[in-house]
Amino acid sequence: MMPTLALLEAFDRHGALLARAPVTRWPVTVGRSLECDLVLDDPHLAPTHLRIDRAADAPRTVSVEVQHTLNGALLQRKRHASGERFDWPDGAPLEIGRTRIALRLADAPIAQELPLPRFPWRTLATTVALLALMLAAVLAAEWLKADDSTKYLKALPGALLGIALFMGGWAGLWAIANKVFDGHLQFWRHMRIACALYLGAEAVSLAASLAAFALSWEAVSRFGYVLITLVLAAGIYAHLAAVLPRRRTGLAWTVGAVLALGLPAWMGVQWLNHARLSNQLYMSSLFPPSLRVAPAVPVPQFTQEAGALRERLDRRVKADDDNEDEE
Amino acid sequence: MPFSTRWRLRLVTPLLWLACGLASAQNPPVAADAPGAPASAAQPSAAQAAALSRDARRIHALSRDKLLQIRTLLRTSNTQASIGSGFFVSADGLIVTNFHVASQLALEPERYRGVYVTIDGQEGDVDLLAFDVQHDVAVLRARQRTAPAPVLEFRPAAEPLAQGERIYSLGNPLDIGFAVTEGTYNGLVRRSFYPRIFFGGTLNPGMSGGPAVDDAGRVLGVNVAKRLDGEQVSFLIPAEFAQALVQRAASAQPITQPAHKEVARQLLVHQQLLTERFLQTPFQEQRHGNYLVPVPDDALARCWGSGRDPDYSALHLERSACQTNSHVVAGDFSTGTVRLGYEAYSAPSYGAARFAHMYSRSFANERIPNRGSRQKTAAECAERFVDQGGLPLRAVVCMSAYRKLPGLYDMTVLAATLNQPTQGVLGRLDVRGIGFDNGLKLAERFLQSFRWEAAP
Question: What ipTM was predicted for this assembly?
Answer without folding.
Answer: 0.80
